[in-house]
Design brief:
By secondary structure, the protein is of the alpha/beta class. The chain has a single domain, classed as Rossmann fold, CATH 3.40.50. The strands form two sheets. Strands 3-2-1-4-5-8-9-10 form an eight-stranded mixed sheet, sandwiched between helices. A two-stranded antiparallel sheet has the order 6-7. Helix 2 links the parallel strand 1 and strand 2. The chain binds NADP nicotinamide-adenine-dinucleotide phosphate. The site of NADP nicotinamide-adenine-dinucleotide phosphate has 22 residues, from helix 2 and helix 5.
Length: about 250
């Protein structure tokens, strides 16, 4: 009986671990800029091996980032970094993203996409640069990848240290693969954020529009009015209030 119980406990532990990220797994962080320098160390703290994908992995600045990340981090070219990884973080400028990803084999990888397909418009404010979104374009470019949009509407300083926000911060997630999205949600929560699943990758266009608003205090020179997104769960209206149930 005791043996059976121990077997069941072990089985439950294995099942609980299924689909979860395990320490020691590799995350390829493509790019070595602000977002890479924020999320790389976050992943390292969670026990992941971080490999930065860089156009020039031998640059002294890249070596400094690798050293600051610690925990066995390294740097390589983009293709090699992706080949080693289960997760790929696209910490690249949108203008370089499609060309950079086109040459990579992302099939089966969980691709975390913080990019925004935005440009500065005529009035000095940001506007959408494409009709859909960066998230949708990345998923279309790599149909075998499990793209999860995350972190696109939060500053790198908060990504690096959620406590810098002075309160709770929500990272909304969208993507077509529910299991990948759930896995990313658990990781993001372990980094110190709240998460909210807002549906398929098609909604990446809404998440990227959130960045238009997020940028307003920065672009209008009112940095003291900077804000963070914290989305609180509410209550749905009751049917008696006149709303028809979904068909
Ligand atoms: N900064 C933020 O607070 C923030 C917040 C949310 C989302 N995002 C999004 O996250 C993405 C990365 O932003 P970031 O601020 O980390 O950008 P960044 O500081 O400019 O760094 C981008 C990195 O991408 C690599 N890269 C590859 N091809 C490039 C090219 N053609 N030109 C320039 N760099 C190239 C570079 O690394 P190597 O030189 O090593 O190749 C560079 O360090 C963007 O899409 C941005 O919209 C940024």
């Amino acid at each position: 009986m005791r043996r059976l119980l121990m077997l069941l406990v072990a089985l439950a532990a294995v099942l609980a671990g299924a689909g979860h990220a395990r320490s020691g797994e590799t995350v390829a962080v493509l790019g070595t800029g602000r977002v890479a320098a924020a999320l790389g160390p976050q992943f390292a703290r969670l026990g992941f091996q971080v490999v930065y994908g860089s156009r020039d992995p031998t640059r002294p600045a890249v070596a400094e980032l690798v050293a600051a990340t610690g925990a066995g981090a390294s740097a390589a070219g983009l293709a090699e970094a992706v080949a080693r990884a289960r997760y790929v973080v696209v910490a690249l400028p949108w203008g370089a993203t499609e060309q950079a990803l086109a040459g990579l084999d992302l099939a089966g990888r969980i691709v975390i996409d913080p990019t925004n397909a935005l440009r500065v418009g005529p009035e000095g404010l940001m506007e959408m640069a494409v009709e859909t979104s960066a998230g949708e374009r990345i998923q279309a470019l790599a149909p075998g990848a499990r793209v999860v949009k995350a972190f696109n509407a939060v500053g790198a300083h908060v990504m690096a240290d959620p406590t810098a926000a002075g309160g709770a911060v929500t990272i909304p997630l969208v993507g077509n693969d529910p299991a990948a999205k759930a896995e990313v949600a658990r990781l993001v929560e372990r980094m110190g954020f709240e998460t909210l699943d807002l549906g398929p990758i098609r909604h990446a266009r809404a998440l990227e529009a959130m960045t238009l608003l997020y940028m307003v205090p920065y672009l209008s020179g009112r940095r003291d009015e900077a804000f963070e997104y914290h989305l609180r769960r509410g209550t749905a209206p009751r049917q008696t209030q006149g709303l028809r149930p979904a068909q």
